[in-house]
């Protein structure tokens, strides 16, 4: 009996005997995809809606030669990442309950101890490139760079974001998506590669999508609450990068609006055109205002494009 199983854009041809049991099929799929049998969900034409005993034969389960099967499921590595987040959450809840029972306590600063706790909790617990795609080591390098990014770490710790698994989206699986946040941070998927798999998208583009998906840890829909937090995260990342270059410490976003430099203001009028002379005669304040308006328009356009390419809002973000 020849079967074809589709899982995350990859096709797995199988050859089994009609009197083999479902347990045999599940075991073969675990070998191929690292998805445990209890987490495998098989969809195919003619399948009964009732739960099937894994000791019945393939024929009894309604499978026939040439049938195509769609498989859903979570791999062992992804499950470990999800469990890590859940374990951290349960640990924090237990500590808070114990503190409540003990009553008020005198707080004292411990410096590195608090920082160490934040580093352990508010981070990406697992990084998983897609091994079936070309050059997974380069994908892993990009995921690692995002995980080690000090600006990203800064906003994750400040806003207490924990992510179980950071992985990638295959272009052929969801060609319309750039990012997806499942279960408010249990797993974030990012489009790392170009459509033709001949390279990777720029780091700046991928990091902006990551900030967008991190916002979905708090807000599911692209409403005003989402837009405000997403804008704040992007400003905090930009401020952190700027402070590192300037050699100053970051204590958090100051709330001040972005103001372009004199050089950036002048760059808006270079290239000539009928209005070039009048623009050059404008005041520095006018040039800065136009540069700021142009930057804001560009950011709004980028956010609109990103919202249209985000798979989290407008659909169920909870994966069963």
From TrEMBL:
GO molecular function annotations of the record: proteasome binding
SMART domains hit by this protein: UBQ (SM00213)
Ranges where the WLM domain occurs: 115-300
Region span, Disordered: 87-118, 262-320
Residue span(s) of domain Ubiquitin-like: 1-78
UniProt cross-references to InterPro entries, sorted A to Z: Ubiquitin-like_dom, Ubiquitin-like_domsf, WLM_dom
Compositionally biased spans, kind Basic and acidic residues: 87-101, 284-301
Entry protein name: WLM-domain-containing protein
């Amino acid at each position: 009996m020849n079967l074809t199983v589709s899982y995350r854009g990859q096709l797995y041809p199988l050859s089994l005997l009609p009197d083999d049991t479902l347990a045999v099929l599940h075991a073969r799929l675990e070998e191929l995809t690292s998805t445990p049998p209890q987490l495998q969900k098989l969809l195919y034409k003619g399948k009964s809606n009732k739960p099937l005993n894994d000791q019945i034969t393939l024929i009894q389960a309604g499978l026939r030669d040439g049938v195509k099967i769609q498989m859903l499921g979570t791999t062992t590595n992804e499950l470990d990442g999800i469990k890590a987040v859940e374990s951290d959450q349960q640990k924090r809840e237990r500590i808070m309950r114990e503190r409540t029972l003990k009553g008020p306590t005198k707080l004292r600063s411990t410096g590195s101890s608090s920082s160490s706790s934040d580093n352990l909790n508010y981070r990406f617990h697992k990084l998983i490139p897609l091994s079936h795609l070309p050059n997974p080591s380069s994908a892993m390098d990009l995921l690692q760079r995002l995980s080690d990014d000090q600006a990203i770490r800064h906003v994750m710790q400040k806003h207490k974001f924990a992510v179980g698994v950071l992985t990638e989206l295959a272009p052929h699986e969801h060609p319309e998506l750039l990012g997806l946040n499942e279960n408010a941070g249990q797993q974030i998927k990012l489009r790392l590669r170009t459509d033709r798999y001949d390279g990777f998208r720029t780091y700046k583009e991928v990091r902006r999508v990551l900030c967008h998906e991190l916002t979905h840890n708090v807000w599911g829909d692209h409403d005003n609450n989402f837009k405000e937090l997403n804008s704040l995260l992007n400003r905090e990342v930009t401020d952190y990068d700027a402070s590192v270059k300037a050699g100053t410490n970051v204590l958090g976003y100051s709330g001040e609006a972005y103001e372009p430099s004199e050089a950036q203001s002048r760059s808006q009028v270079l290239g000539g055109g009928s209005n070039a002379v009048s623009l050059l005669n404008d005041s520095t304040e006018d040039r800065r205002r136009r540069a700021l308006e142009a930057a804001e328009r560009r950011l709004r356009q980028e956010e609109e494009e990103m919202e249209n390419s985000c798979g989290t809002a407008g659909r169920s973000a909870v994966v069963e």
